[in-house]
Design brief:
Elements lengths: L1 H7 L5 H27 L6 H12 L20 H7 L7 H26 L8 H11 L1 H9 L3 H16 L3 H12 L10 H5 L4 H17 L6 H12 L10 H8 L3 H25 L5 H19 L12 H5 L11 H11 L10 H36 L15 H7 L5 H8 L2
């Protein structure tokens, strides 16, 4: 009978079943999001302003002459970004957009692989299809393809920066983040991390590349001064449309200025404490957890308290989310993942029956998602600090902490490659 059961009920471990289930579903999602939804486009088109700016740049025409009083997408890249985007206008706009979507899909797949490797798992593990499935199920990835913007390349630069920083290839880490800063400065807050970690060489290329590219692009542009006189002031304004920052959300709903200021200060205070606690207690013993969690805190705080925070920026929080696989992650609580749902869900809350309520939920979901995520991470770290304080372990030098043991981590990361993940953590 046992021999019969062997053939009738073949046994497969969970780490083999998960890829069998997710790979066909994920591949179909990739095709649907890119070939159907991406090519179809939507009411917002981030690609056309970039293409038109690149075309004007190649034809020696003014680039920064848009009317910023409209709610249409505007071209906001600096001259260095214009120089890098210029090849897009060599071919016609339709084929250029399709190629850009195809490149974005390949980059996102590469990002899922790099994120898997960052946490110590191989491309053959169950983690890779899970990460890729999660990527393409989110609003942030879907709208990056539908609106056709540069965010997937920013995520690639961020992951390259994190990986190379951990491996102490400092100059190359600076190259990875510097190329993204030359186009859009959304990752600029992450430069605080190499400063804190005394990896000064990162700044040479991270700052040098945008400076050099701007120096090259400046004499090639017709109106580079307009970027400083017109575009930068516009970037500092908190517009009341397509803006999920606290200031933008407050402007749309008519929130009192004093309350907006109080909320922004509160989130900055939470970020400062969280970064201090992570630096003091995790940087030396668990550098992977320190750098990925700190990067997420810096970015989500920037999205909330800055002048512009758009929902599809949330893809830059993927490294923070995957820390859930690591012992000590502040993502191991349900409020944090409720916040993730808010800022990454593709669900719409428009309601026929309760129109005003549904509209309020829809326009607030990203803001409350970021806020809840930040509050959950802050509270998780605050409670740990209070526990350490009650135990008398918060002296001047701080406690002597040890990295998680292989046994601890392997019990937390079920299946496959727990030891590889621990090796990366303890590096």
């Amino acid at each position: 009978m046992a021999i019969l059961d062997r053939y009738l009920y073949p046994q497969l471990p969970a780490q083999r079943i998960i890829p069998l289930v997710l790979w066909p579903i994920t591949l179909m999602m990739v095709l649907q999001r890119s070939i159907i939804m991406g090519v179809n486009g939507d009411r917002t088109d981030d690609f056309s302003p970039v293409y038109q700016a690149a075309l004007r740049f190649l034809n020696s025409q003014a680039v920064y002459g848009e009317n910023y009083d409209t709610v249409d997408p505007h071209y906001l890249y600096p001259p260095s970004g214009t120089l890098l985007m210029a090849p897009l206008a060599i071919i016609d706009p339709e084929r250029s957009r399709w190629l850009f979507i195809a490149a974005s899909v390949l980059v996102l797949i590469a990002c899922a692989y790099l994120l898997t490797r960052l946490f110590g798992f191989s491309g053959r593990s169950w983690v890779f299809p899970v990460v890729l499935f999660f990527f393409f199920s989110t609003e942030t990835v879907a709208h990056t393809l539908i609106f056709t913007n540069f965010n997937s390349f920013v995520l690639l630069g961020m992951l390259g920066f994190l990986l190379l920083s951990l491996r102490r290839h400092d100059l190359w880490a600076g190259v990875a983040i510097g190329l993204t800063l030359a186009v859009k400065p959304v990752l600029a807050p992450l430069l605080l991390l190499p400063l804190l970690n005394r990896q000064w060489k990162v700044l040479i290329t991270a700052v040098g590349i945008p400076v050099v590219l701007n120096a090259l692009a400046w004499p090639m542009s017709v109106d580079p001064g307009s970027f400083i006189s017109r575009t930068i002031p516009y970037l500092g304004e908190a517009r009341d449309y397509y803006n999920s920052s606290i200031a933008g959300n407050g402007a749309y709903f008519g929130v009192a200025d004093w309350l907006v200021i109080v909320l922004r200060i509160a989130f900055v205070v939470m970020a400062v404490f969280s970064l201090w606690f992570l630096y003091r207690y995790y940087r030396r013993t668990n550098e992977l957890l320190w750098i990925t969690t700190s990067s997420g805190i810096l970015l989500v705080t920037t999205f909330l308290v800055g002048s512009l925070g758009q929902g599809y920026y949330s893809m830059l929080l993927f490294p923070l989310l995957l820390t859930v696989l690591l012992p000590g992650s502040p993502m191991r609580n349900w409020p944090a993942w409720l916040g993730v749902y808010g800022c990454m869900t593709f669900d719409a809350f428009y309601s026929v029956q309760w129109e005003a309520f549904g509209r309020m939920l829809e326009f607030n979901k990203v803001t409350w998602g970021w806020s809840l995520l930040m509050i959950a991470v802050f509270c998780s770290l605050l409670f740990r600090y209070l526990d350490l304080r009650r135990a008398g372990l918060t002296g001047a030098d701080g406690p002597t902490l040890e990295s998680p043991t292989s046994t601890d981590a392997e019990s937390d990361i079920s299946g496959g490659e727990g030891r590889a993940a621990v090796a990366t953590v303890e590096k």
